Amino acid sequence: MKILVCLSNVPDTTTKIKLNGDQSALDMTGVQWVINPWDELALTRALDLKEKSEGKIDTITVITVGESLTEPTIRKALAVGADDAVRINLNPTDDYEVASNIAAWVKNNPYNIILTGIESSDYNGSAVGGMLAEFLKIPSVSSVSFLDMEGDKPLMKREIPGGTETIRVPMPFVAIVQKGIALDPRIPAMRGIMMARKKELTVVEPAGEGSKSTYIGFAMPKAKAKVKMIDAENAGQLITLLHEEAKVI
Amino acid sequence: MNFQFTEEQLMIQQAARDYAQRELIKDVLERDEKALYPTEHVKNLAELGFLGMLVSEKWDGGGMDTVSYVLAMEEISKVDASASVIMSVNNSLVCYGLEKFGNDAQREKYLRPLARGKKIGAFLLSEPEAGSDATKQRTTAVDMGDYYLLNGTKNWITNGNTASTYLVIAHTHPEKGHRGINVFIVERHSEGITVGPHENKMGMRSSDTHSVMFNDVKVPKENRIGEDGFGFKFAMKTLEGGRIGIASQALGIASGALELATKYAKERKAFGTEIINHQAIAFKLADMAVKVENARNLCLKAAWLKDQGQAYGTASAMAKMYAADIAMEVTTEAVQIHGGYGYVKEYHVERLMREAKLTQIYEGTSEVQKIIISRSLME
Hints:
The structure holds two protein chains of two kinds. Chain A is of the alpha/beta class. Chain A has a single domain (2-220), classed as 3-Layer(aba) Sandwich (Rossmann fold), CATH 3.40.50. Chain A has helices at residues 37-51, 71-80, 95-108, 128-136, 190-196, 236-244, and strands at residues 2-6, 9-11, 33-35, 59-65, 84-88, 113-117, 140-150, 153-160, 163-167, 173-177, 201-204. In chain A, helix 2 (71-80) links the parallel strand 4 and strand 5. In chain A, helix 2 packs across helix 5 (190-196) and helix 3 (95-108) runs parallel beside helix 4 (128-136). Chain B is of the alpha+beta class. Chain B is 53% helix and 14% strand. Chain B has ten helices and nine strands. In chain B, helix 6 (231-267) packs parallel to helix 8. The interface between A and B is medium-sized, with 15 and 20 residues.
């Protein structure tokens, strides 16, 4: 059995976002790149499943659509235990382009389970997983917070308002995973870091479709209003301020 | 000249940062308060490969360079210098000494488990009356034909009780001065060894410091490292590299304090603005940042020289002296910036200040480093 985990290369979640001069793009100078946190959890779960599968899961491959600057994050995925990696050499501009290019690879290189994070922490499009399943004409399950194997049958759970759904779908399928799928992401060990150097990272040229959208401009959110702290023993002052200063009551 | 770290070095730095900020931070205050040994963390650090990261892959180590080691030591020490001294002693004194100067049989038996972190090592040089003047060893190892008979007391031994493997420096031929000193691999549970009580230290309270007494301990002949009389040279050579570990630890304590003080200064308000906007505080932080950067550069330079196979003894002495001295200054200022909060335990900086003090004392005091540096000027 083979698992594919789709990785997005995103700015570190503590990055202070800046825009370029005409506000048409993000200014990426000095940005630290990391694996998209949801994708990292997907990878963590895939590794857990492989380790307890007693050899039934043969390989975990990671795939990224991105140019060479994404390689350090791909190497990190290899260092924590992914077996091999594919990089589609393209700087994508929308979800459609990402999904279409991953699909083009998967059509010729089939996997039993494909995992994507529910969204990426940069553009938060939440679309690649669903689109990928459509391109491949296979089932997809979104908001998966639990994935396990019962023998060779995968079992998933997803949170719904007021409860939990338990779902089974035939393989191959796409699971779009969210928080809860795994606990903390793994920290690479020295041995893993050494081995990552020797693992295969295949670079292929794009074979899918181009993007369907153009970003016209970005705008920064308004600066947060100043916060006024009131001592706990002086709570009555809150009412006065809400009434006289904020004028909301 | 190239100041760019490699992809692997950055990955190691990030791995150390993740472990420190995610795991070590959780119980560091409690371990400091109660002087508890970080048993679980040592196990985890071993699994991640940090305890033998400098040992070659051939002997089950991580095969990493010294620059990576500096980066990892800095990140771990920002949060917990007690954990990082365990890592430093195991890596740069015990494993290094065995790999560099031991024979294959000794490496096979003792280095392999130490490199994997399955066992922990300790380096036994200091004595009640032989600290900076390491030639005045009173511990004796008498040649009995098939074995050596070890007698004496060692002081201030990091990992003293938890270590399984000791490297013990002792006099075999006192009449020959420092040329009569030997170094032996001694198993912790050999008959005749008594470990003294846990030292109640000012800082690094969760590292395991003890005195160790040897009373007619039999050490097999094959456990002597190197030729007869090699012990003093062994100790000095090994400490050259050890200094890079402690220098990086001091650097980490200082840079951890700088990070905390900067964060606090951006949040704390006085006289209507965040205190970082007051020049009195901003200039303190500027001075601290320059000192930390200087210390980092000295540590990395010494590490780079070692990785290039060049002489690094003076460079590592400079790094150790400077980083330890500025760690004391920077942590003191970090407490000052925090005001009253800096003087209580929850804010970490008072602990960093207590930890910094030890870096000026152990593995060669700042004064001993000055002897080494000044002697290099006399050559």
